[in-house]
Amino acid sequence: MPIQFRCTGCRSKLYVPARWHGTSIVCPRCETRVMVPAEAAGGVVTSFEGAAIEASLEALAPTADGPFDAAPFTVKVSGKVGGKSHRKGKRPARPRAVGRPRMVTFPAWAPYAWSVGSLLLAVGAFFAGVLWASRGGGS
Hints:
single chain; alpha+beta; two-stranded antiparallel ribbon
């Protein structure tokens, strides 16, 4: 006799063989891992919830002509893109655009080094000009 119980994730009714009591299964609807309850004496299945909750869930169950009657869409998820497996470090080479130069990247400290170098060059040029003017090079 199959065991009937509800999924703890989506509240759908599940039926499993009696020999699966005490094991865990994956719900086919919501993919939640659920423990199968053990059978009590007399073949009555112990329930995780009370009779009042069970009755209210029966009242909320969708009817055959309800809006959720249609099968939900499925999305195929795989680790392959374009028939080839994508593993880290094994990316296909991107085609290079014609007429465009290659992009060059610099480390984060490069703009600061450029600024300090430009400042040192400007200060050096200033003092070189002062020295040149003091020796009478401009007149």
